[in-house]
Predict the 3D structure of the following.
Amino acid sequence: MNKHICTAALAAAAFLALLPGCTTYDDKKHAARTKWDKVSAQARVTVARDLFENGRYEDAQTTAQQCLQSDPELPEAHLILGKCQYLNGQFVQAQSAFIKAVGFDEDLDQAWYWLGEIAAQNRQPAQALEYYSRAVNLQPMHIDYIISVVETYAELGRYDDALGLLEAKQAVLPGNVRLKVTTADMLQRLGKARQAISMYQQALMLQPDNTAVAEALGYCYLTEQDYNRAAAMFEKVAAVAVGEKKAVCLQLLALCSMNAGQYGRAVGYYDKLSVDQRDDEQLWLQMGHAALGAGAANRAAACAARALTLRPGWEDAIALQGCAQYLSNDYDAAIQTFGRIIADKKMGGFAWLMSGRCYQQLGQHDLADRAYENASRLNPESKLTSLLARNR
C-alpha cells in the first residue's frame, strides 16, 4: 500500500515537473510564429513599395493590408496603405493610416508630408505647415518638402519667411533649378519683376532647354515691357511647342513684335497663325493692323476684305479698309469707306479724323477742318492713329 502511494506521488511530481516545460514550449512556439509573421510582413512591404512606385496602386494596397494582418504595427505598411487611399480619394481613411504610421514611427517623414497634403487640401494651412515642417526637419534637403513649406508660408501671407527659407536652402543647394524657379515665382507674385528676372536667368543658365523657365522669363520681360527679350524667350518655347501651346506662343510673339515696332515680323507670325485659324476674323484684323504698321497697304486691304467676308459690316474691319486706302493714296475711296462708320459710337471719332486727313490731302481744307472738329469732339483713341502717323 505504501509502495503504491509512493509510486503515485512520484508520478504526480513528475507530471507537475513537466507542466512548466509545456508552457515554455507554447510560448516559444508563439514567439517564433510572431517573429516569422513580422519578418514575412517586412518582406512583403518591400513588394508593396515596389508595386506602388510602379503605379500598381490596387495591388500595392492589397499587399500592404496583408502586411498589416501579419504585423499591425508596421509603419511603412500604414504609409503605403495611406498613399493608395489618398490616390483613390479616400482622404479620411488615408489620414488615419498616416497618423498610425507616425504613431509607430515618428521619424517617418513621408507620412508627415502626406498629412500636410491632406491638411492643405482641407484648407488648413496652419496645420499643413506644422506637418510639412516635421517632414522637412527630418529631411532638410528634400525639395518637395521645402517647396511645400514655402507655398504654405505664402498662403499664410508669410512671404519673408518663404523667401528666407528659399535663400537658406539655395545657399546649400546653389544648383537646384526648382528652388530658383520657386524663388522667381514668389518674387514675381510680389511685383519684384527685376529680381524675378535675375532668378529665372540663373535657372535658365543651369537648364538652357527648360522651356517652362523660358516661358516664365518671357512673361516677366513682358511685364517690364522688354519686348525683344520677351520675344527671344517665346521663340524658344514656340520652337518645341505644338497645338494650342504653339498658337499662344505665336500670338505672344506677334504682340511683342507689334509693341517693339517690328510690324513686318508681326505679319509673319500672324501669317503662321492663319494656317490653322483661317476663319478667325480677329486674327485677320490683327494681321491687317501689323501690315499697316509695316506700310504694306495692299496686304492690309486684303486682310480687311477677309475679315469683312467672315463678319460683314464689322466696323473695325471697315476702319482697317479705309486706312489701307488712305495709305494707297486713294483718298476718295477712303472717304467713302469712313463715311460708313462715322455714326458708330466706337469708331465714329476715328472715322472723322481719317476723313479729315483725306480731305486735307485732296486740298479740301474747309471739309478737313469740319471733320477734325467732329473728331476732336468725340475724342477718339485708336492704335490705328499712331500706326498711320508713322506712314503718312
About this structure: The mean pLDDT is 88.
